[in-house]
Each structure stands twice: as C-alpha cells, then as structure tokens.
Automatic annotation (TrEMBL):
GO molecular function: methyltransferase activity
Keyword Transferase: yes
EC number: 2.1.1.-
Keyword line: Methyltransferase, Transferase
Organism: Methylobacterium marchantiae
Listed GO biological process terms: methylation
Major enzyme class: transferase
This protein's name: Class I SAM-dependent methyltransferase
Length: 218
C-alpha cells in the first residue's frame, strides 16, 4: 500500500460515515456538473477520486443507460461506496477499483480503455501531484469524450474574512485549493488538441472546467 493510500485511509476511516452528510454544505457545484455531463446513450463515465460513490450514484440515476466506474486510493472509502451501491441495487452498473490517480490502467481494472466522460470532483485539492492526475485523466478520454473538473476556486470575489476562514478550515483537512487550475486546464487542452471551458462559480468559491472535443468539429 502506498503512503498516499495509508494517509487517505487514516483520514477517512471514521469520516466516511458522515462524509456525505457534512460535505453537501460546502462541496458546491457537483450537481450542476453532473446535470451538464450529457453522456451518450450507453456511454461510460469514470470518476477519479470517487470517495463514497455519492456522485456516481447520482450519475447512474440521472443517466439510466450509462456504465459507471469509480477509482479511489482509499480502501476505506471504496468499502463505503460498495455498500451504498449494493443498497441501491446498482452493482450491475457501477464498478470500483483501488488505484493511484496519477498512473492507472483502466483496461486492466475495468476492461475499458477510454471513457465518454471523466469526472474529478473536489479531489485535486487533496492530491499533491494534481497536475499529473489531470494529464492521466485526459489520456483516457474517448475521441469525443469530455473531462469535467469541479474544485475549490480562488475565492476572488468573496469577502476577505470569508476567504480567510474558508482556507484555514480547509487546511485543517489537508485541502489546498489549486488557484492555478483555471490556467492549467487551457494548457492541458492545447496539449491534447481539445477545446476548454472554464467557469468561476459562487464568487470564485468553486471552479468548473470542461476539456472536450471542439463542438464545431462534431
């Protein structure tokens, strides 16, 4: 087991039981991102850093024909995710694997080499080599696929006291907003020959970026 896996298991061994109930108040923009995924009928969706499986369950319910896959480094979180999926009766549509988001082989893990949609929701702010995660994800997109990322933004339009309180609170959980994420996404899109859309949400509290094939060529 890697050091990253041990750290995540230690952090979430108890938190996983209250994770979804507590995070819904501040992991903003996730449901908007899911509503805009629009995967093709019968398509595939991979979430990197899937945690408790909350997003994949919502995706499976929103898009009843898609096949869903989740990758996470924490065995504790995947245990919780597996139980949630079993309770929902969606084990035939949602599969999980444990692995390192900076280097993984989805063909070996899931029998899928590429995906129509890849989602990374509030995971980059917890992964030190986050740029490597983005590059790895982009490499597993189908030709007409799209990578959706939502995470903490630079809070540039929030009041100063609110920014201070938010960042100090996040630091207590080893969460580091990636303030250069809006600049990194266009750079990666250029490297991949794709189009990019980046939006600041809620006064810069969150950022939602999409790397996709240029719609004018579809």
């Amino acid at each position: 087991m890697s050091e990253a896996a041990r750290l995540m298991d230690r952090m979430y061994r108890r938190q996983r039981y209250i994770y979804d109930a507590s995070r819904k108040f501040y992991l903003l923009g996730r449901d908007r991102m899911i509503a805009e995924l629009a995967p093709p009928t019968g398509g595939s969706v991979l979430e990197i850093g899937c945690g408790t499986g909350r997003n994949l369950l919502r995706i499976a319910h929103t898009y009843p024909t898609v096949r869903c896959f989740g990758l996470d480094v924490s065995g504790e979180m995947l245990h919780t995710a597996g139980r949630a999926v079993a309770r929902a009766g969606l084990g035939h549509r949602i599969r999980f694997a444990r692995g390192d988001a900076t280097a993984f082989d989805p063909a070996a893990m899931f029998g899928e080499a590429e995906f129509d949609r890849i989602v990374i929701s509030y995971a980059l702010s917890m992964i030190p080599p986050w740029r490597a995660v983005l590059a790895e994800a982009a490499g597993h997109l189908a030709p007409a696929g799209a990578l959706h990322v939502v995470d903490f933004g630079d809070q540039n339009r929030l009041p100063g006291p609110a920014r201070w309180a938010l960042n100090h609170w996040l630091a207590a959980f080893d969460v580091t907003p990636r303030h250069d994420l809006p600049q990194m996404l266009p750079e990666l899109a250029r490297q991949e020959g794709r189009h990019v859309r980046v939006r600041q949400l809620f006064g810069g509290y969150a950022v939602h970026g999409v790397i996709e094939r240029d719609r004018r060529t579809i």
